[in-house]
């Protein structure tokens, strides 16, 4: 792809990779089940927080398709560019987020990475200070679902850049 800058210069971008597999077409039952999980996961979680969780997990998992989708959805829902941009450095940019959001982001990272094989007690305790048990269950469900979507997106090489907000309305 080539574009022309405001100064008339041509910029050539790298070639977009093709998807490896049309997952939804090849495994429609699983895809439908994932959509059902997505619908269940989105209930009872603040929509803004839900998008922040999805963006942060997608950053960690290097899922360009999901990053494209969820940053666009977050912007369309009224999220600020600054909060989205700072999300990858949320510990350094704490003042852009509420304590509740910070606790959820910590839990998102711990559930997504699992480098120690478990979610550290202090991370879970911090989340439990801001969310009751039902809310925690919903939060963990949301984190689990976006991690599953990320794994589908990354393994099948879904290409970012073509999503428009609301494209996959449930």
From TrEMBL:
Coiled coil: none annotated. GO terms for molecular function: peroxiredoxin activity. Residues 28-109 form the Carboxymuconolactone decarboxylase-like domain. It comes from the Bacteria. SUPFAM superfamilies: AhpD-like. Pfam families: CMD. PANTHER family: 4-CARBOXYMUCONOLACTONE DECARBOXYLASE FAMILY PROTEIN (AFU_ORTHOLOGUE AFUA_6G11590), CYTOPLASMIC PROTEIN. Keywords: Oxidoreductase, Peroxidase. This is Alkylhydroperoxidase.
